[in-house]
Every structure is written in C-alpha cells, then in structure tokens.
Amino acid sequence: MSLDLPATGCRDTPVLKQRGQREVFCGLTGIIWLHRKMQDAFFLVVGSRTCAHLLQAAAGVMIFAEPRFGTAILEEKDLAGLADANVELDREVGRLLARRPDIRQLFLVGSCPSEVIKLDLARAAERLNGQHSPHVRVYNYSGSGIETTFTQGEDACLAAMVPSLPATTARELLIVGALPDVVEDQALNLLRALGIPVTRTLPAHRHSELPAVGENTVFALVQPFLGDTHAALTRRGARHIPAPFPFGEEGTTAWLRAVAEEFGVSRDHFEAVTAAPRARAQKAIAAAALTLSGKSVFFFPDSQLEIPLARFLTRECGMTAIEVGTPYLQTGIVGPDLDMLAEGPTISEGQDVDLQLDRARAARPDLTVCGLGLANPLEAEGLSTKWAIELVFTPVHFYEQAGDLASLFARPLRRKAILSQGASA
Amino acid sequence: MKLTLWTYEGPTHVGAMRVATAMKGLHYVLHAPQGDTYADLLFTMIERRNHRPPVTYTTFQARDLGGDTANLFKDAAREAYNRFKPQAMIVGASCTAELIQDDPGGLAQALGLPIPVIPLDLPSYQRKENFGADETFLQIVRALARPMARTEAITCNLLGATGLGFRHRDDVAEVTKLLGLMGITVNVCAPMGATPHDITRMGAAHFNVLLYPETGEAAARYLEKTCNQPFTKAVPIGVGATRDFLHEISGITGISAKVDETGLRLPWWSASVDSTYLTGKRVYIFGDATHVMAAARIAATEIGFEVVGMGCYNREYARPMRTAAKAYGLEALISDDYLEVEADIARLQPEMILGTQMERHIGKRLGIPCAVISAPVHVQDFPARYSPQMGFEGANVIFDTWIHPLVMGLEEHLLTMFREDFEFHDGAGASHHGGKAQSRPETPVEPVEASGGDISGQMNDTGAPGDPAWLPDAERELRKIPFFVRGKAKRNTEKYAAERGMAAISVDTLYEAKAHYAR
C-alpha cells in the first residue's frame, strides 16, 4: 500500500511566525510523566519557588505519594555567591540519596533562574557522579522556560542520556519517546509479531534496562518533539527511520510499514499482522468521526503534537483544519506528516497569544485545541475546546488507542450538544 | 538552598496575580519567561474563571538575554495598554526577571502612559505568595487612595478578599449581609470586585473591615494612618468571633451589635444529643494563621473537640499563632515543610485533622479523617453552592463540613459493640462515604510476631529500642478497638507503659491505661 498523498501537502506552506506573548508551559512540565515512567529516577529541579509551584499546579491533583521529583529552591544567600550554591547542592543531593536508596538515576534539571545565574549543572553532575557512582548515575539537562517549551523538556532529558548509553554493534531497533506502559507493550508486541529482531526503548523503566546504541542501531521516534535526541543518537552513529507518527490507523500503519521495510518484512506478513488491529482501529475511529466529520479545528501551540494530530483529524475524522499552531516546527521530523496534511490551514510557529486569539475568535472554529489557561475563557465565549495537555497524559498512540484519541476530540462537542439540549428542555 | 516537594505558598508574583485577577480594570505587566504563564491556569481551572487573568507576560527567551529584554518589556507594556485600556497598571518582575534587573517600574514610567502605573518590588527569593498579595494591595491603595469626605451614612470597606482565596467569594457576600443587619453598607470591597477608580474612593468609608489579615493587613494599616479609618481585628469565623466582630463594629460606630440570629444553627446542632459523640474528639489544626486560630476557637468552645496540635505555614503570623496555641496549652508548629507537619500529626495521632489540601492527603495516608479549612486551594474548594466560612451561615457551613468526615454517632456505637461483624466492621469505613465496603477477611486475627507488626493501620513507626513491646494478646485486643480511636488507644497505652518503665504491654496494661486516661 502506498500512502494516498494529497496533491499539495503543507511541507512548503509559508509559516506564519509572530513574536509576542507565548502562553505555554516550560520544559520542567515533562517531569510529571517522566518521573512515573522511569521508576528509579529522581528529578531535582534547581530553581525557584515558581518552579516548585508550577510542578504542583501542573500535577493538578497533587499526586501525594512522595514524588520522585523535587525542587532545590534557590534563596537569597545562594544568589550572593556561586561557590556556596554548589556546596548547598551537594548537601541536598547527599541528603536526598540517603533518604531514597532506591534511586539509581538522578537528573539535575536546570531552570530559568539557574540558567540566568549560570549555575553550571554539567559540572555539578560530573562532580556528583564522582561522589555517587556507580550506585547512582547523575545527568543534567535544562527544562528552563527561557530555552524549552513543554515537551522539549522530555527531549532535553532523553538527549542528556544518549552520550553515556553503552555502545553496541548489534543491529537493533530503538523506539524513542516516553509512552504509557500499556501502549509501549502493544507496540513491542506488534513489532515482535512482524518479526523485527531486537527492540529496545528509550527511556527505559530502570537504569539497568537502558538500551545500547551504535552504528547498526536504527531508531524510530514515537513523539514528534525529539529533535535534540534525534541529533544525539545520530552522533552515536544510529540511523533514523523517518515516518509519520503513529496516531490513528493510518499513521500507525505508515509508521509500522517504515520500520517493517527497514527490516525487510514481506508485504504479506505485514498485512497478516496488521489487518485485524487496523480494522478495529478504523471501526473505533468511525464511531467518534460521526461527531467530528465536517467540523473545523484550530490548534494553539502546545506540545508539538499538533501537526501529526491535524493530519489525523483531517484525514481520518473528516475535520477541516483552520490553523495548526506549533511551538516549534521541526520539518525534518514532522515532514512526512506535513506531506500528508492537505494544503489549506495556516501553519504557525511560535505565538503572539493575543493576535492568535483574535484569529480564533474571527474564525469561530467548532473545536479549539489549547492550553489550560485559555480553555475556560474560550468556552465562556461559546467556543468548544480540547485541553491540549490531556494529549500527552493519555494513551493515544497506535491502533488500540486510535478510537480513544478521536473521542478525546469528540467529547467536548458531544458535551456541548447534550448540555444545549438540556438547557432548552 | 532548600529541597521542597510540595509547597503551601506560591511565589510572590502569584500573590500579585491574585490581587490583579480579583480586581477589574487593572492590568498586570509581568516581566517573566514563558513558563510562568502556567499561573493563568490556577485561575481558569481551579477557580473556573471565565476570563483570562489580566496579566501580560513578556515571555523573554534565552536569546533575548544578551540583547534587549528592557525593550521587550516596554513593547509588552505599551501593547497591553493599547489592547486592554486599563484604568491603572501594576508592573513587576517574576523570580527570573528579578535576576536580570531591568527595572520594570522605571521602564513603564518612561512610556508616559496616561494612567497610573504602579511598580511592585516583590523579593522572590525571600518572600512568598501571601506577602506578594498583601504588598501589591498596599501599593495599589498607596498609589490611588486619598483622604476625603466621609459618606453621610455609616459605610465601611471590606479588605483582603482576592482571587484563589479560600471561600472569599461567599465570605464577602455573608459579611456584607451581616453588616446590612446593623444598617451598615459597604463602600468598597477590595481587591475583590474593585476597579482602580473604586480604590480612589476608599477614603469615604468610616472604617475598614479586615477580612483576611494575610492579604489585607498592610493596606488596612496604611488606611488607618492616612485616612484615619480604624479597622476591625476580629475575624468573624465562628459564632463567638462573629459576635466579637459585631461588638467591635458597635464600638467603632455606636450602632447596637444586637442582630437577628434566626439563621444561626451551629449552637443547637452542637448542643443536641447526637453531638455527644463529638465531645472530646482530638483534632489537629493546620493552615494559614487566620483560619487556624479561628478553627481552634470553634473546635474547642463551640463544638467541644480537644485541640491537640495546631500551627501555620505563614511565618509572618508566627507570633499571634504561638500566643493562640498557648491558650490551649500547646506549642504551635510554624513550618512550611509538609513533611514536618506530617510527622507532627503522626506523632499526635489525632482523631481528626482540620487543615489544607496538603493535610487532607496526609490524613489519607495516615487513615485520619480531614476537613479543609484553609488555602492552598484545590478545585474542590470552589463549590457551586453558597458556602461561606464567615458570619452565622459560615458557622453552619463549618459545622456540617467538619462533621461530615467523621463516623456518625450511632454508627460509632455499633462499631464498638459489634466490631467483628463480617460486613459492618471498622475496616469498611464510615457508611455515608464513598468507596467500596470490603468484607472482613475470613481468617480471624492472626497471631502477630513480637515486633508488633503494623497495628496502627498506616503508621510506619518502628519503635525505638527500649520501647515497651506489645504482647500478642494485647495486640489482638487493640485491633478490636474501632479504627477511629485505635491510634489514640495505642499511643496512650504506650505512653502509660513507658512512663512506668514497663517492658511489655499486656491486655491489663491496655485497660489500665484506658482507666488512667478516662475522661
């Protein structure tokens, strides 16, 4: 099967770039899912009270089991002299590791204040590695809002792990990007059924399960925001398998096919393995598409999932995209999705939130995908919204979740229909 | 540097946002990186606000740092003025912008906007959210309020209600109603609902009602000095405090404090026989100082609980908090470290916690019921229904809210009498709460090893060497005590045995201790 590409896709569409207020999370937010995914890792943000408050607010309902993340809050005296801050950091890390002997990986996460005062967390990580290895591996990355937007935090985290991954010459497939456990298992089962020899994942649940990497490694991304990780793996000699992202039946099939072709899986075997889950996915999507078909959608920039999701909603659910905003447009990674997205929508990168709100209000889309700060105000103006953050907190990849993904978008529309009937009765 | 997992208070600029968002016609231009825009969702999600907070963030990035972040600020301020046309503007920096020292106040003044521009200086690395709100409100009042002729009729201002406050919306309505019973009308309620123009006429009121010292005291003191307006010290949470409040106003205005108390039910609800089961229940109280001090008085004198521990997270009020605790023979815990609060609660084994959402989680972990009395807030703290904490209706609401998490009177007796019933056993929890009732395991209480096992349910206190050990019989007996008093019984017995240097606790020790602590 070859993909049924539109005559003109969006790869060459001129991109609207405006500079103004960006209404987005910083990269620290990724800690909320990464600390659950990596079960022996602790994320120590070196930052301010604002960072701690953000993590608490982003976690929404407070997950109150002692979390595997925390904030070392910089105080007045730390800002006075940097040598002092390093001593204080060593002390806090020592205390933390003493209290949590189960921790095998420690991420020192840079924040806006730590970047501005130029606290050198790379050197701190090196120093702490000297003190705590081999029991604990210490990494550092920046999740600061002056350098990273939302999901870029995961990218920075994974990229930080790549240089120290063990080397291998084995021909292995590496799946890159944090997936919910159930989805990861499904993906691995599909790849196993296709007969793909050895598949590893980054991130792994535990330090001891981290993959090795080398020039015979090929890797496939399951998240579109992993540009730095892509570059870091390429530097280790690994080769990327470009593909549309595995959202929806079509995206999943295209993604699997790209991997299958790399490993020489026969067309018949591919059809045999994927036929049943594909049919299930199509059936599940069709149910939600009844609600979505013919409706318009407007994406505010949030997670970088916007391009692949717009491709899914327009091609598999019958929606029309008015604007697809993304914090960063990494054409090298989402190129295959851009090719499949028919021309028409405005593609915008970055944000001036007030101007973008003006455009959304003028267009009055049937569904607006946006962040939590904008959703209720837009609902109050009569626009139906989908919280973008739910898309990174919910299992949405691969065949068995394709229907769930579609119904995440359908639910706000269904709710609106129900409530408007109820009010008029 | 201090390691923090969860925080009671946000940063200072979130305090400023609470003031700005509560007001109308005011705009806040905040020099801050993009990540700080998360704060919008506190208001739009937790409080379900249907408008964006009136805040413009400059969202500078790393690449701007070497260049011109100052111009970025000026552009943002100018565009915010043109777009939102506010009556006044507050300008300031978040923690990161404080480090780059662009002086938002000076930059904004240089724009020559035709409205008052009020600079905020909120030290992010020293202070916290409540200070930020209090200081912001003070600066707005200082910039805009002036002494002026008083209104003919007796009026007052209500001070301190903000966005994201614990039941501020309903407290303002209830106190307005209460003042109405005395024939006093509200001149300006601020920050909540006020415009900058309203602030300019605050001087016309005869006195100020300070609803929340945490977020309004600095402004109240300033107005006392410059506009010669006395302010109320009693916070009307609880029956006694509400009556004190009315008397205080009577002293200021000369109007009689006698008001219609028809709707007040708490006193009879406490006095009716069903409430006997509340008498002497041991409660632990933690939150902001104002709500904790008020709750302690209600608990101790209006419901008949025993206050076994209390404290607050806002250090600014440590002194009045310590004084209040002394009245109950307690040493107040002043801490913003929830692990310390958790340890204190675990040590004291109260039968109930009155706290914040943090203590609600602590209670869940320790198996102790909890009612929420204070910020920090959660989406649950913004109920659709009217539920003030202040005034007489507030007292009614408090009675209901506090009693709800407890096991009810007759049920408590039945659990005590037939605690081994296979369906109606203490592991099933209170019958009016959600959660699936679990039948009691078929196996009878199995013998426990000498180490004692986990007899308190959730507690993981490993007894220090030298502590008296529970003998198997005594431990089995302890397990028969209903869960809501088991912690107390365990603690009292151990204390009793330790004080007498006993090495082992037998069934007799358990009952000797029970008799010793009988009340």
Task: Describe what this molecule looks like in 3D.
The complex is a heterodimer of chains A (425) and B (519). With 425 residues, chain A is α/β, with parallel strands linked by helices. Chain A is 47% helix and 16% strand. Chain A has a six-stranded parallel beta sheet, with helices on both faces. In chain A, helix 2 (49-58) links the parallel strand 2 and strand 3 (69-73). In chain A, helix 7 (152-161) packs parallel to helix 9 (227-235) and helix 12 (306-316) packs parallel to helix 13. Chain A is globular. Chain B has 519 residues and is α/β, with parallel strands linked by helices. The longest helix of chain B has 17 residues, at 483-499. Mean pLDDT of chain B is 89; it is low at 440-463. In chain B, strand 12 (352-355), helix 16 and strand 13 (370-372) form a beta-alpha-beta unit. Chain B has a five-stranded parallel beta sheet, sandwiched between helices. In chain B, strands 3-2-4-5 form a four-stranded parallel beta sheet, with helices on both faces. A three-stranded parallel beta sheet of chain B has the order 7-6-8, with helices on both faces. The interface between A and B is large, with 64 and 57 residues.
Fraction in beta strands of chain B: 5-15%
The number of distinct helices of chain B, counting runs of at least 4 residues, comes to: 21
Name the structural class of chain A.
alpha/beta
Would you identify the regions of chain A where 5 or more consecutive residues have pLDDT less than 50?
none
How does the helix and strand content of chain B classify structurally? Answer: alpha/beta
| Unreliable stretches covering 5 or more consecutive residues of chain B | 440-463
Shape of chain A: globular
Beta content of chain A comes to: 15-25%
Order of strands, widest sheet of chain A: 1-12-11-10-13-14
Mean pLDDT of chain B: 89
**Terminal Cα span of chain B:** 47 Å
Features:
heterodimer; A: alpha/beta; six-stranded parallel beta sheet; four-stranded parallel beta sheet; B: 519 residues; alpha/beta; five-stranded parallel beta sheet; 21 helices; 15 strands; 13% strand
